[in-house]
């Protein structure tokens, strides 16, 4: 049985999120302790990891887990390795939160949505393996992930505007990470259909 699959990575991420949420629920930790914000980046760098697994309420947790499961299922069907899936989640989340932190944004950031959006961006690129246009899939994911916060931002919510930016930025970062992986080591990313293998081998001089 193979364990290096997106489904395994999804279960690990979800389990950590639920575990930390339980700790929050029983007041062992708080979002302020695990979230990341300007002013504590250098003193407490571990927050760059913990913020992705910390959530502000049940609704926040469930929405992110739903997106995570969907991204994991799609990546599994596309034959992507679980280690690649997990790496994209962590890296996209880390990079997505950097712009607001570097501009001294007053908010404390928590939640897996940055990493999940990165996964959807990567999945859009990986759809090319099955002949589906990445740009079309990216556009559909962009609308699905930014419609709600953009609608809220129109009512004057600065927090919703930042959320919409982070969702869209995470999506783009995930697509970029997938393109880099595909360009450097396409066989490491995951299974490639036989029909795609010959053109790739010719391209890389095989």
Per the principal axes of the C-alpha atoms, what is the gross shape? Answer: globular
Q: Distance between termini? A: 31 Å
**Content of β-strand:** under 5%
| Structural Rg | 18 Å
The structure class reads mainly alpha
Annotation, overall tally of beta strands: 0
Order of SSEs: HHHHHHHHHH
Give the rounded overall mean pLDDT.
87
Question: Would you kindly provide a written description of the structure presented here, covering whatever features stand out?
Answer:
By secondary structure, this protein is mainly α. The chain has 10 helices and no strands. It has helices at 6-25, 31-34, 47-50, 58-77, 82-102, 113-126, 134-153, 158-184, 186-189, 194-203. The longest helix is centred in the C-terminal third of the chain and has 27 residues, at 158-184. The radius of gyration is 18 Å and the shape is globular. The relative contact order is 0.13. The model is unreliable at 194-206 (pLDDT under 50).
Topology:
Blueprint: H1 6-25, H2 31-34, H3 47-50, H4 58-77, H5 82-102, H6 113-126, H7 134-153, H8 158-184, H9 186-189, H10 194-203
Short description:
The chain has 206 residues and is mostly helical.
Which key terms come to mind for this protein?
mainly alpha; single chain; globular; 10 helices
């Amino acid at each position: 049985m193979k364990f290096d699959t997106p489904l395994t990575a999804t279960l690990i991420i979800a389990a950590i999120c639920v575990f930390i949420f339980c700790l929050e629920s029983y007041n062992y930790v708080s979002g302020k302790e695990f979230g990341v914000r300007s002013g504590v980046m250098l003193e407490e760098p571990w927050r760059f990891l913990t913020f992705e697994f910390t959530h502000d309420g049940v609704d926040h947790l469930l929405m992110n887990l739903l997106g995570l499961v969907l991204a994991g299922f799609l990546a599994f069907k596309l034959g992507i390795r679980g280690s690649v899936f997990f790496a994209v989640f962590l890296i996209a989340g880390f990079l997505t939160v950097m712009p607001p932190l570097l501009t001294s944004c007053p908010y404390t950031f928590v939640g897996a949505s940055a990493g999940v959006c990165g996964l959807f961006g990567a999945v859009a690129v990986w759809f090319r393996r099955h002949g589906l246009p990445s740009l079309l899939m990216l556009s559909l994911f962009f609308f699905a992930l930014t419609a709600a916060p953009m609608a809220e931002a129109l009512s004057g919510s600065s927090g919703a505007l930042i959320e919409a930016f982070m969702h869209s930025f995470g999506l783009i970062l995930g697509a970029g990470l997938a393109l880099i992986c595909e360009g450097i080591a396409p066989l490491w990313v995951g299974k490639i259909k036989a029909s795609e293998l010959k053109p790739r081998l010719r391209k890389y001089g095989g």
